[in-house]
Design a protein that fits this description.
alpha/beta; globular
C-alpha cells in the first residue's frame, strides 16, 4: 500500500488527479510502472524523477519503484491523507503566470524542434515547402511512406472545417507505445487551451473542443487514452508546464532547454506532442472551425 504515512520519505510528488483505490499492473518500464483500475480503466503511474510530476503520476524514490516492479496490484491511499499545504501534491492544472505576446516565440520554437528532433516523422510537417524534403526520400518502405502520407492528410483535415474527420484519421495512427497521431492530438489540445488562457479575444471553448477530440480519439491504448484525457481537461505534466512557461516568457535559452528535454521522451512522443502544439500556435488566429463547439 502506498500512503502518506508509510511511504512519506519515499514519495517525491503525487498528482492531484489521482483517485484512491486498488490498481492492477498494466506495464513496466525503466522509469515508469503503470497501473490501472479495471472498472474505470483509469491509469496511474509510479515514476522516477526522470519522468517527474504529472496529473496521474506518483513520483517516487528508486527503492519503492524497484519494489513495485515485483507487485501485480497496488493499493493507493494518498491524497486523502495529505494536508492541502503539503508541497508533494502536484497541481497539474494549466495556469499562465501572465499574458505575454508569445507569438514572436513560435518561429523560434519551431526552429528548436527541427534542430533537436530531425529523425521524428512528424517534423516533416514543420519543414518549409520547397525545402527539398520529400516523403519518398524520408521513407524507404512503401508502408512507411503510406503511413506518413496518411498522417499528413489527417493533419490537413484537422486544421479545417473537417476537423472531426481529421481526429478520426489521426487517432491511434502510428506505432510505438503512444502512437504519433495521439501524441499530436495531445499537443493540439494543450495548444488550444494555452491560446484560450493567453488571448482574451479567443472565441472557442477549450473544454468543449477537448471533450469532442477525446470522445473521437480515445481507444484501447490506455496510456494514450490517459494522456488524451488529461490534455482535454487542461492538466499537464511538470515538463509540459515548464515548456509553456518558457514559451510565454523568459530567456530563449530556457525555451531551448525545455524543447531539448521533451525531445528525449519516448522514441518520438515528445517531439510529436510539440509538433501538434507548435502547429496549433502557428494557426492561433485561424481556428474559427472550432467555434461550433461553443
Amino acid at each position: 500500500m502506498i500512503n502518506s504515512q508509510s511511504s512519506n520519505h519515499l514519495i517525491i510528488s503525487c498528482g492531484d488527479a489521482i483517485v484512491a483505490g486498488s490498481y492492477l499492473k498494466h506495464s513496466c518500464f525503466s522509469s515508469v510502472i503503470n497501473f490501472y483500475d479495471p472498472n474505470s480503466e483509469r491509469l496511474i503511474s509510479l515514476v522516477s524523477s526522470v519522468i517527474g510530476a504529472g496529473p496521474g503520476n506518483i513520483e517516487v524514490c528508486p527503492p519503492i519503484l524497484d519494489y513495485y516492479r515485483q507487485e501485480s496490484v497496488v493499493s493507493v491511499e494518498i491524497l486523502p491523507n495529505f494536508p492541502a499545504n503539503v508541497r508533494k501534491v502536484y497541481c497539474s492544472k494549466m495556469e499562465i503566470e501572465s499574458e505575454k505576446d508569445w507569438g514572436c516565440r513560435v518561429a523560434e520554437f519551431k526552429k528548436l524542434i527541427l534542430s533537436y528532433a530531425k529523425c521524428a516523422d512528424s517534423v516533416y510537417l514543420l519543414q518549409d515547402v520547397g525545402s527539398g524534403s520529400d516523403i519518398s526520400a524520408l521513407k524507404r518502405s512503401t508502408f512507411d511512406r503510406t503511413l506518413l502520407n496518411h498522417f499528413v492528410q489527417g493533419v490537413a483535415l484537422f486544421f479545417s472545417s473537417s476537423w472531426k474527420e481529421g481526429v478520426v484519421v489521426l487517432a491511434g495512427l502510428g506505432g510505438g507505445l503512444t502512437p504519433t497521431g495521439d501524441d499530436f492530438l495531445t499537443g493540439v489540445m494543450v495548444g488550444l487551451r494555452f491560446i484560450y488562457l493567453t488571448r482574451k479575444e479567443t472565441c472557442f471553448n477549450p473544454d468543449k473542443v477537448g471533450e469532442m477530440i477525446f470522445h473521437l480519439a480515445q481507444g484501447p491504448n490506455l496510456i494514450s487514452t490517459a494522456q488524451l484525457f488529461w490534455a482535454s481537461r487542461g492538466r499537464v505534466s511538470i515538463t509540459v508546464k515548464e515548456l509553456l512557461s518558457a514559451l510565454n516568457q523568459g530567456p530563449i535559452e530556457r525555451l531551448s532547454t525545455a524543447v531539448d528535454h521533451l525531445s528525449t521522451y519516448g522514441s518520438s512522443s515528445g517531439v510529436d506532442f510539440m509538433v501538434g502544439l507548435c502547429m496549433t500556435l502557428e494557426r492561433n488566429d485561424k481556428l474559427e472551425f472550432f467555434y461550433e463547439c461553443n
